[in-house]
C-alpha cells in the first residue's frame, strides 16, 4: 500500500549575477528523482552534505516549492498531487505530512512556552483550544516521555534530547501520515541518540506512522529503516531494502560509504583506504556519471553517459542502481547479524 | 519556587530584564532617565518658578549655592541672598552672596500659579523659598530662572525624541518588513531607495526642511513638523535591521515548522517573526533617540527648529551663542550638560538592552 | 615506553555567575611517545577543557585549581601549569613542541589572510628563516597532506576551500614544525563520512612518518576504535577507565563504558531496540555525591557508590578503572 509516490522531482536554484540579477546557471540540488514509500515503512535517504537530501524533504513537504515533478499522497482512496497544488489548496493537506528537524536549538521558538509550541498545530487547524488543547498537549508530552507539568516552561529549560522530544511531540500532534525526520539525532549526544531512536520506533508503531528518514549516519540507517535510497549530487544512485544495500551494494559510492564509516571494533581496523577527491560543486557537476571522478572502477563510458536507473532485483524485491557496470562489479558489503 | 525553576519559567522579557540588571551602567542610566522624564512630565510642579517670570532685578544672576551650615551651625538647606555691587571699572553688575539674607529651602511651598498639563490648577511647588529667591542655575538675560526653564525644556526635548523614534519605528518595521519578507525585486528596489536616502547629507536636509516651515505656524505645529522631519531619515536604519532579520527568520526552523503545521502567514509574521525582533528593535530604538534629541537641539540652536516662547534645551542654548555670554555667564550652558547626560544615559541603556537581548544565551 | 606528557590529578574549575563548574576534577593520564591516546566522552565531560589546559588556552573564567601537566622535552621535564599563560615559554611550545587542531576548520583560520600566509606566520614565529624558505616549506607540507595544486592553494583564502581541504591545511600547519605532541579536538566531527575517512587515514600516515604522539579527543567510538592505541574514557570531569584499545572494546569494565558501547548502533548488527543509558547527564552545578555515575548505573551499590568516590584500581597491567566493583572500598 503506497503512501507516497515521488516522480521526477526536481529542484533547481538559479544562480544570478550582476545588479539586475541575471540568471547564469542553476544549482541542481534535486535532479529528477523518483521513489515510493509504503504505508508504515521507514525509507532512509542517505548521503553526504550537498547531495540534496534535505532539499528533497523540503520539496516533498512543500516547505519550498519544487521546480518540477509530482509528489502524490495517497489518502484513504484519494490521490493528491502535493507538488502541483497552490498554497491555499495545500492548507488542508498540511496535517498529513510533518517534519522533525535536526537542530533542537533552532526548531523551537524560544519565546513560546512548550504548551503553545506543541499546541500550535492543533490551534491553527481549529482542532482544539483552551482546556481541551491543554489536555491534548499533556497526552502528547506523555507519549514522548516528558512530564506534562513541563508544558509551562520555555525551551531554554530543556536539554538537547528533551528539546528533540518536544519537536517530536509537535510533529505528531496532528496525527500525520508521513513524518520526515531530518537528521533527528545528529546534533545529540551518543547516549541520547539511542533514547530518541527508540522513541521514534515506538511512536511509529503506536501511531501507524510512515517515516522518510534523512541521515548521513549509516549505522542508524541500518537500525531503523526498511529500505534505503542513496543520494549523490542530487540523484538517487541506489535504492533497495536495507539488507540488500548493506550486504550486497551495487553502486561504488554505496560501497565507499559503507567502508568509510569507522566501526566501533578495533578488530575491524582494516586498512582504511579512503577514496580520493571531494564532492563536486552541484552548480557544475561532472559529465556523464557524477561519481566517475572518484570512482575506483570508472571506465571511459562513465565519463560520457549518465547511467540508467534500473532494477537489478525482482518485482517483489527491487534493487535499483544507476551504474553502467552494476551487474559485473563485485562490491564489498557488510554482513548483517541479528 | 527554587531558583532553577524560576529560570525555566522565565519568559524572554524576564530573562532580558535579569541580564539587563547586571549591567550597572545601564541601570544607572535608566534611573537617571527616569528622573529626567518625571521632572519633565511634572515640570510645573518641580520647578520653583514660572519659566517666563521676569525678575528684572536679577538679570544674569549667577547660581545660588545650597548651604547647610551658617557660621558653623547646621540649620538645614538654605541659600544666601544676592548683594548687588557695581564693578568700578566696567560698571557691570556683580552679584555676591549676602550672608545676612538667609532663605530656607522648604518643600511643597506655594508659589507661582500654574496649570499642570494645562488642566489642573495649583500653586504648590515641590521646593522653593518663602521669601527671597532661589536660582539654582542662575538667571538669563531677562532674569528668568534657568533651572525652571531647563525643567520645562526637558519636557519638550526628551519627548520629541520619543515621538520621532516611534514614527521611525512604524515606518522602519513596515518598509523593512516588506523588503525582507518578499525579497526579490521588491527588496532590491526598497534597498536601493534606502541607500539613496541615506546618502543625502542629513544636516543640510534638516536645515532645508526646517527653514521651509512657515514662520507663522504655532509652536505645536512646528514641534510635530520637526519630529516628522527627524523621523524621515531615522527610519532607514531600522528598516535595514528589520529587513535582515526577516530575511534570516524566514528560513529559521521554527518558522518552517509553523508553516508546515498550517499557520497562516499573518500568524507567522506576528507570532513568530515579529517577537524575535522586538528586543532588538527596542535596543535599536533606544539607541536612535539620542540622535533625535541632538537633532532637535541642533535645529533649535540654529534658530531653525523651535523658537521662543517655546522652551527646549536647544532654544535655551540659543541664548549662549556668543563668546561674551559663555565667558561671563557660563551657567547658561547648563542645558547643554543636560543634553549630554541624557544622550549618554540613552546610550548606556540602549547598549545594556542590546547586550541583554540574546535569547540563546542562558 | 618513554613518556611525552604526564597529567597528574588535574583540576580545572570555572567560576560562573550561577556557580562553580568542576569541569575537570582529578584527571590523571600519560601520553607515550609515538602513541595515539583516544580521550573519549560525551559533551560536557571535560575532554576539551583538558586539552585546552595543556596549552594554557583556557577562557578567563577558568582556573587550574590543582595538578601538574609535565611535559618531557629534550630529556628535561617542564610543568606546564606553572607557566604564565601569556608568557614566552608557553608560546615557544605552542605550535612547535605541542600543536593543536580543532573541530571547525573554517573557524580556525582567519578569513582575511590567505591560508599560506597563516601557515608561513606559524613557521616564522618559531624559526629564523626567510619568508621564501618558509613558503617553500608550506607548499611541501600542503603536498604532503595531499592537497592538489598546492602552489595555487597557498594563495587562496579559507572561504575558497572546502571543509575537508581546510582541515588538511590545519593538519599541515600543525605538523609543519614536527611537534612532539598533537592535540586533535574532534578533528573530523564536522566532516562528511568519506572525507572523515580521508582525514583519519592521513593523520595515521603522518603520525607514523613523524613519530609524533596524538591526543585524539572525540565522542565517536568508531573513530577511537580505528585510530587509538590506548583509550581513556571520561565522564563528568573524571577518567573512569583507561585501557589499551583492543582490551577496552573486548572487555569494558566500567558500567559507563559498557553502557556507552551497548547504546551505539553499529553497522552489521541489527537490533530491534537500542539499549539506552537511563537517566540524564546531571546538572553541572549539582553533581552527584560519591561516584558521579551512580544515579545512572545499573550496578549501583547503595551506601557505597553514593557516599565515596571510587579510587583508581589497576585491574590488569595497563587497564585501570574507577569503580567499587573492582575494589577500592577500603581506602
From TrEMBL, chain A:
Mention one GO biological process in which this protein takes part, according to its record. Answer: peptide transport
The record's SUPFAM superfamilies line, in alphabetical order, gives: P-loop containing nucleoside triphosphate hydrolases
Keywords on record: ATP-binding, Nucleotide-binding, Transport
MF terms per GO, please? ATP binding; ATP hydrolysis activity
Sorted alphabetically, which Pfam families does this protein's record hold? ABC_tran (PF00005), oligo_HPY (PF08352)
UniProt xrefs under InterPro entries? AAA+_ATPase, ABC_transp_ATP-bind, ABC_transporter-like_ATP-bd, ABC_transporter-like_CS, Oligopep_ABC_C, P-loop_NTPase
Task: Please state which protein family the record places this protein in.
Answer: Belongs to the ABC transporter superfamily.
The protein's matches in PANTHER family, at most eight in alphabetical order, are given as:
D,D-DIPEPTIDE TRANSPORT ATP-BINDING PROTEIN DDPF-RELATED, TRANSPORT ATP-BINDING PROTEIN
Q: What is this protein called?
A: Oligopeptide ABC transporter, ATP-binding protein
UniProtKB/TrEMBL annotation, chain B:
Question: What is the protein named?
Answer: Binding-protein-dependent transport systems inner membrane component
Gene3D superfamilies noted in UniProt: MetI-like
Q: Cross-referenced Pfam families, in alphabetical order? A: BPD_transp_1, OppC_N
Transmembrane stretches, start-end: 25-47, 160-184, 196-217, 223-242, 281-306, 326-349
Q: What is its main location?
A: membrane
What InterPro entries does the record tag this protein with? MetI-like (IPR000515), MetI-like_sf (IPR035906), OppC_N (IPR025966)
- Is the keyword Transport assigned to this protein? yes
Keywords, sorted A to Z: Membrane, Transmembrane, Transmembrane helix, Transport
Q: What is the lineage of its organism?
A: Bacteria, Thermotogati, Thermotogota, Thermotogae, Thermotogales
Superkingdom of the source species = Bacteria
UniProtKB/TrEMBL annotation, chain C:
UniProt-listed GO biological process terms: peptide transport
Q: How does it sit in the membrane?
A: Peripheral membrane protein
Q: Where are the membrane-spanning stretches?
A: none
State its location(s): Cell membrane
Task: Give the main location.
Answer: membrane
**Cellular component GO terms, alphabetically?**
plasma membrane
UniProtKB keywords: ATP-binding, Cell inner membrane, Cell membrane, Membrane, Nucleotide-binding, Translocase, Transport
Identify a single GO molecular function assigned to this protein: ATP hydrolysis activity
InterPro entries reported in the protein's UniProt record: AAA+_ATPase, ABC_Ni/Peptide_Import, ABC_transporter-like_ATP-bd, Oligopep_ABC_C, P-loop_NTPase
What family is this? Answer: Belongs to the ABC transporter superfamily.
Could you tell me what this protein is called? Oligopeptide ABC transporter, ATP-binding protein
What's the source species for this entry?
Answer: Thermotoga petrophila
Instruction: Give the source lineage, highest ranks first.
Output: Bacteria, Thermotogati, Thermotogota, Thermotogae, Thermotogales
Amino acid at each position: 500500500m503506497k503512501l507516497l509516490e515521488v516522480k521526477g522531482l526536481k529542484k533547481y536554484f538559479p544562480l544570478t549575477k550582476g545588479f539586475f540579477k541575471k540568471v547564469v546557471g542553476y544549482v541542481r540540488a534535486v535532479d529528477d528523482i523518483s521513489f515510493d514509500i509504503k504505508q508504515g515503512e521507514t525509507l532512509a535517504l542517505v548521503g553526504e552534505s550537498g547531495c540534496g537530501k534535505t532539499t528533497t524533504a523540503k520539496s516533498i513537504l512543500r516547505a519550498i516549492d519544487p521546480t518540477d515533478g509530482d509528489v502524490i499522497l495517497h489518502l484513504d482512496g484519494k490521490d493528491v498531487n502535493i507538488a502541483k497544488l497552490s498554497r491555499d489548496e495545500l492548507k488542508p493537506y498540511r496535517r498529513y505530512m510533518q517534519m522533525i528537524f535536526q537542530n533542537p536549538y533552532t526548531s523551537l521558538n524560544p519565546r513560546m512556552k512548550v504548551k503553545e509550541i506543541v499546541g500550535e498545530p492543533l490551534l491553527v487547524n481549529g482542532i482544539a483550544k483552551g482546556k481541551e488543547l491543554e489536555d491534548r498537549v499533556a497526552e502528547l508530552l506523555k507519549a514522548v516521555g516528558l512530564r506534562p507539568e513541563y508544558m509551562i516552561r520555555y525551551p531554554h529549560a530543556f536539554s538537547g534530547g528533551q528539546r528533540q522530544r518536544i519537536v517530536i511531540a509537535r510533529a505528531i500532534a496532528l496525527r500525520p501520515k508521513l513524518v520526515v525526520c531530518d537528521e533527528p539525532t545528529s546534533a545529540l549526544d551518543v547516549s541520547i541518540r539511542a533514547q530518541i531512536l527508540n522513541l521514534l520506533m515506538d511512536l511509529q508503531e503506536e501511531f501507524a506512522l510512515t517515516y522518510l528518514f534523512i541521515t548521513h549516519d549509516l549505522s542508524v540507517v541500518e537500525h531503523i529503516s526498511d529500505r534505503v535510497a542513496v543520494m549523490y549530487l542530487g540523484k538517487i544512485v541506489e535504492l533497495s531494502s536495507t539488507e540488500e544495500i548493506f550486504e550486497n551494494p551495487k553502486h561504488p559510492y554505496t560501497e565507499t560509504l559503507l567502508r568509510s564509516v569507522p566501526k566501533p571494533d578495533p578488530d575491524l581496523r582494516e586498512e582504511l583506504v579512503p577514496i580520493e577527491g571531494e564532492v563536486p560543486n552541484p552548480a557544475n557537476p561532472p559529465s556523464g556519471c557524477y561519481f566517475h571522478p572518484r570512482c575506483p572502477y570508472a571506465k571511459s563510458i562513465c565519463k560520457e553517459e549518465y547511467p540508467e536507473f534500473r532494477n537489478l532485483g525482482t518485482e517483489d524485491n527491487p534493487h535499483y542502481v544507476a551504474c553502467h557496470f552494476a551487474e559485473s562489479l563485485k562490491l564489498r558489503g557488510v554482513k548483517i547479524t541479528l | 519556587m527554587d531558583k532553577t525553576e524560576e529560570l525555566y519559567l522565565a519568559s524572554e522579557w524576564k530573562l532580558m530584564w535579569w541580564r539587563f540588571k547586571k549591567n550597572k551602567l545601564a541601570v544607572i542610566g535608566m534611573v537617571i532617565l527616569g528622573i529626567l522624564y518625571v521632572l519633565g512630565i511634572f515640570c510645573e510642579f518641580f520647578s520653583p518658578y514660572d519659566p517666563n517670570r521676569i525678575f528684572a532685578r536679577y538679570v544674569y544672576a549667577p547660581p545660588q549655592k545650597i548651604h547647610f551650615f551658617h557660621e558653623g551651625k547646621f540649620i538645614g538647606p538654605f541659600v544666601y541672598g544676592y548683594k548687588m555691587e557695581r564693578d568700578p571699572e566696567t560698571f557691570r553688575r556683580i552679584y555676591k552672596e549676602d550672608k545676612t539674607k538667609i532663605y530656607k529651602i522648604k518643600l511643597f511651598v506655594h508659589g507661582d500659579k500654574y496649570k499642570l498639563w494645562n488642566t489642573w490648577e495649583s500653586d504648590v511647588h515641590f521646593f522653593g523659598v518663602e521669601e527671597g529667591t532661589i536660582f539654582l542655575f542662575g538667571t538669563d538675560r531677562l532674569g528668568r530662572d534657568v533651572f525652571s526653564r531647563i525643567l520645562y525644556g526637558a519636557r519638550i526635548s526628551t519627548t520629541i525624541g520619543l515621538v520621532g523614534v516611534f514614527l521611525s519605528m512604524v515606518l522602519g518595521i513596515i518598509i523593512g518588513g516588506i523588503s525582507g519578507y518578499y525579497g526579490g525585486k521588491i527588496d532590491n528596489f526598497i534597498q536601493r531607495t534606502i541607500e539613496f536616502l541615506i546618502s543625502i547629507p542629513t544636516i543640510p536636509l534638516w536645515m532645508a526642511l526646517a527653514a521651509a516651515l512657515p514662520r507663522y505656524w504655532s509652536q505645536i505645529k512646528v514641534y510635530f513638523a520637526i519630529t516628522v522631519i527627524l523621523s524621515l531619515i531615522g527610519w532607514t536604519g531600522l528598516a535595514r535591521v528589520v529587513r535582515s532579520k526577516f530575511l534570516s527568520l524566514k528560513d529559521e526552523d521554527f518558522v518552517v515548522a509553523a508553516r508546515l503545521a498550517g499557520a497562516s502567514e499573518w500568524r507567522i509574521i506576528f507570532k513568530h517573526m515579529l517577537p524575535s525582533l522586538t528586543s532588538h528593535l527596542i535596543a535599536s530604538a533606544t539607541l536612535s533617540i539620542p540622535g533625535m534629541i541632538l537633532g532637535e537641539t541642533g535645529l533649535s540652536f540654529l534658530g531653525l527648529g523651535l523658537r521662543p516662547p517655546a522652551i527646549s534645551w536647544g532654544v535655551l542654548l540659543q541664548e549662549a551663542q556668543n563668546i561674551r555670554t559663555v565667558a561671563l555667564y557660563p551657567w547658561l550652558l547648563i542645558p547643554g550638560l543636560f543634553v549630554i547626560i541624557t544622550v549618554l544615559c540613552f546610550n548606556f541603556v540602549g547598549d545594556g538592552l542590546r547586550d541583554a537581548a540574546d535569547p540563546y544565551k542562558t | 615506553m618513554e613518556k611525552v606528557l604526564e597529567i597528574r590529578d588535574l583540576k580545572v574549575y570555572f567560576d560562573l555567575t550561577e556557580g562553580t563548574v568542576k569541569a575537570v576534577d582529578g584527571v590523571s593520564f600519560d601520553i607515550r611517545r609515538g602513541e595515539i591516546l583516544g580521550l573519549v566522552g560525551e559533551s560536557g565531560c571535560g575532554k576539551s577543557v583538558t586539552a585546552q589546559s595543556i596549552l594554557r588556552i583556557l577562557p578567563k573564567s577558568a582556573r587550574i585549581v590543582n595538578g601538574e601537566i609535565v611535559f618531557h622535552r629534550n630529556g628535561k621535564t617542564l610543568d606546564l601549569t606553572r607557566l604564565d599563560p601569556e608568557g614566552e615559554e608557553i608560546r615557544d611550545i605552542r605550535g612547535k613542541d605541542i600543536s593543536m587542531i580543532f573541530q571547525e576548520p573554517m573557524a580556525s583560520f582567519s578569513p582575511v589572510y590567505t591560508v599560506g600566509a597563516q601557515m608561513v606566520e606559524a613557521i616564522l614565529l618559531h624559526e629564523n628563516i626567510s619568508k621564501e624558505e618558509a613558503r617553500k616549506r608550506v607548499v611541501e607540507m600542503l603536498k604532503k597532506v595531499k592537497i592538489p595544486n598546492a602552489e595555487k592553494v597557498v594563495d587562496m583564502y579559507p572561504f575558497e576551500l572546502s571543509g575537508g581541504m581546510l582541515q588538511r591545511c590545519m593538519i599541515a600547519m600543525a605538523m609543519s614544525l614536527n611537534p612532539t605532541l598533537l592535540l586533535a579536538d574532534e578533528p573530523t566531527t564536522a566532516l562528511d563520512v568519506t572525507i572523515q575517512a580521508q582525514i583519519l587515514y592521513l593523520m595515521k600516515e603522518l603520525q607514523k612518518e613523524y613519530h609524533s604522539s596524538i591526543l585524539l579527543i572525540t565522542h565517536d567510538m568508531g573513530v577511537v576504535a580505528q585510530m587509538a592505541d590506548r583509550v581513556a574514557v571520561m565522564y563528568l570531569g573524571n577518567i573512569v577507565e583507561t585501557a589499551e584499545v583492543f582490551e577496552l572494546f573486548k572487555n569494558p569494565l566500567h558500567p559507563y563504558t559498557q553502557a556507552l558501547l551497548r547504546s551505539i548502533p553499529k553497522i552489521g548488527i541489527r537490533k530491534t531496540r537500542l539499549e539506552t543509558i537511563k537517566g540524564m547527564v546531571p546538572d553541572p552545578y549539582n553533581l552527584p555525591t560519591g561516584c558521579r555515575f551512580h544515579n545512572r548505573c545499573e550496578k549501583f551499590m547503595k551506601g557505597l557508590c553514593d557516599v565515596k568516590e571510587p579510587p583508581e584500581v589497576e585491574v590488569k597491567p595497563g587497564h585501570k578503572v574507577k569503580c567499587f566493583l573492582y575494589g577500592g572500598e577500603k581506602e
